[in-house]
Amino acid sequence: MDFFNSFDVFLADERVIGVLPGVLGKVFYKNKKKIPVSVDLGYEKDWKEEIDKGFSCGLLWLSNGTCSVVKVGKFGMGESEIVENVVSAVSEVAEVVPRKWDGVQCMHLKFYDSLALKIYEKKSKKSLGE
């Protein structure tokens, strides 16, 4: 548990990521915020670039329910970086959810300790009066 609490982010080479659940245990995979991020540390790769990518990527956790979360920014990022990440995340999320855009009912933008701001809502096929 000390190892788990010692770091905010965990990176792991993509070649071993599949065996980590058995090695690290349930505590890492219960709290999805701490699941190790896969990076490519192959022989020909630029490790610094790969590690930087691992720290800056947005992770999407598709839940079994109707709501999923993707983190697209952090404190200290500039406005243009966050806007770019939000635009990129919206299009990427729509590509990976089941049924693409047909599977997306709505999207919200939320900051730490804020209310959610709706940025997309699927139009209903039926009006309320029908």
Automatic annotation (TrEMBL):
Q: Which terms are listed as keywords in the entry? A: Ribonucleoprotein, Ribosomal protein
Q: Which InterPro entries match?
A: eL8/uL1-like, Ribosomal_uL1-like, Ribosomal_uL1/biogenesis, Ribosomal_uL1_3-a/b-sand
Q: Name one GO molecular function term.
A: RNA binding
Q: Does the keyword Ribonucleoprotein apply?
A: yes
Q: Which CDD domains match?
A: Ribosomal_L1
Q: Name one Pfam family in it.
A: Ribosomal_L1
* A GO-annotated cellular component: ribosome
Q: Which Gene3D superfamilies does the record match to this protein? A: 3.30.190.20, 3.40.50.790
Q: What is this protein called?
A: Ribosomal protein L1
